[in-house]
Design goal:
Layout lengths: L1 E7 L4 H13 L2 E5 L10 H13 L6 E5 L3 H7 L7 E3 L3 H9 L5 E5 L5 H13 L6 H19 L1
Parallel strand pairs: 1-2, 1-3, 3-5, 4-5
Length: about 150
């Protein structure tokens, strides 16, 4: 069974539960970092915790869900080694993997239905990074991370 990490805020809780169930059906074990209810919570802590797990290499991929997906994307992409992609359709999910080697899928529960989320997730999980000219660009991103990290 493949392992993946997942988290949501209160607005993404319902979709997260459906996505977790779907992951189980397609042979993924999902570690859930929360939230565990629809009670209001602060998304930055959840997104940061998940991004940190990816950055440290404890998981190779993760999923974040909030209402728009924007907040989670902003937080996750501040963590070195994380390439979080906010995806609203399967084509964008495919490109995020092929061209950017995204390792965190971000979904906006207010804009993506359960059916669409499953389609996006399936494509994202099954698409490989193309390398080639995209590897050169990915290496440029890594170089930028090192420059930024050295300033802090």
């Amino acid at each position: 069974m493949k392992k993946i990490i997942i988290a949501s805020d209160h607005a993404g809780f319902r979709l997260k539960e459906k996505v977790k169930s779907y992951l189980g059906k397609i042979n993924y074990e999902a570690r859930d970092l929360g939230t565990y209810s629809e009670e209001r919570c602060d998304y930055p802590e959840l997104a940061y915790h998940l991004a940190k797990e990816i950055s440290r290499g404890h998981y190779s991929r993760g999923i974040l869900i909030c209402n728009s997906g924007i907040g989670h994307s902003i937080v996750a992409n501040r963590v070195p080694g994380v390439r979080a992609a906010l995806c609203y359709n399967a084509k964008v999910a495919q490109l995020s993997r092929e061209h950017n080697d995204s390792n965190v899928l971000v979904l906006g529960s207010g804009f993506v239905s359960e059916q669409a989320a499953k389609k996006i997730l399936k494509v994202w999980l099954n698409t490989e990074f193309q390398g080639g000219r995209h590897l050169r660009r990915l290496n440029q991103l890594k170089k930028i991370e090192k420059i930024i990290g050295a300033r802090e």
